[in-house]
Amino acid sequence: MTDLKVDQQGEDLVLDYELDAPPEKVWRAISIPALRATWLPSGDLADAAPISSTSGEEVRYRMRDDEPPYLESIVTFQVTPNAEGGTRLRIIHGLVATKLMRRSPPAANSNARSLMRAA
Amino acid sequence: MNASALREGLTISQPAMSQHLAVLRNARLVREERQGRFVNYEVDPDGLAQIARWLAKYRAYWPTRVDALKTLLRDMDQ
Fold first, then answer.
1. What secondary structure, in 3-state letters, does chain A show?
2. What is the ipTM of this complex?
3. Which positions in chain A have a beta carbon within 8 angstroms of at least one beta carbon in chain B?
4. What are the pLDDT digits (tens) for A4-40?
5. Predicted structure pTM score
6. In which element (H, E) is residue B75 found?
7. Which residues of B touch A (CB under 8 A)?
8. Which domains does chain A have, with CATH numbers?
9. CB count, 10 Å around CB of A99?
10. Which residue range forms the structural domain that includes residue B33?
11. Is residue B38 located within the same domain as residue B49?
């Protein structure tokens, strides 16, 4: 079990890990809330529900830092099979505000789900 | 530097420059200082330091979390 590399693309952290477990098993561990909470605490997430999820391939969560100024970020987990029957897990983690600099804001009338907080 | 000076040599409209500056200001990468009718923009060192701290924290955070994930994977049934 080797950890390949730690890389940084722009302001995003990009980390690749090689896991012995098969992709289906890793997918369950990162996407089923009860399993995910055992290694990635819900308290570290801004919302326990994913922003988006492509079954077996990719899931994205919004995170909130636990100390002021409580910076919000988005983490993307990508699951791909590796040559040894295990899994390559890629973690891409970036701040929300710095993402705005590279991407134009979504159209106000797009169908993407917007995040709202109950009053 | 004011918004006109920042725009020198760039083919970008004044409203577009204002939008870009607003994004950078919200991200706390630049800050503005009003002097009478003029607004000057400068790099916000606090904002940059915040981002550097954030990166350092999560660079150390993920290896620990992935270790916990590996433990879970060992404990899980196939």
1. CCCCEEEEECCEEEEEEEECCCHHHHHHHHHCHHHHHHHCCHHHECCCCCCEEECCCEEEEEEECCCCCCCEEEEEEEEEECCCCCEEEEEEEEEHHHHHCCCCCCCCCCCCCCCCCCC
2. 0.75
3. 1, 3, 6, 8, 11, 13, 15, 17, 19-21, 25-26, 28-30, 35, 38-40, 65, 69, 71, 73, 89, 91, 93, 95, 97-98, 100-101
4. 444 444 578 999 999 999 999 999 999 999 999 999 9
5. 0.72
6. helix B45-75
7. 23-24, 26-29, 50-51, 54-55, 57-59, 62-63, 65-66, 68-73, 76, 78
8. 5-100 (3.30.530.20)
9. 15
10. 1-43
11. no
Residue B63: its chain A contacts at CB < 8 A? 3, 15
**How far apart are the CA of A83 and the nearest CA of chain B, in angstroms?**
19
Task: Mark whether B32 and B54 lie in a shared domain.
Answer: no
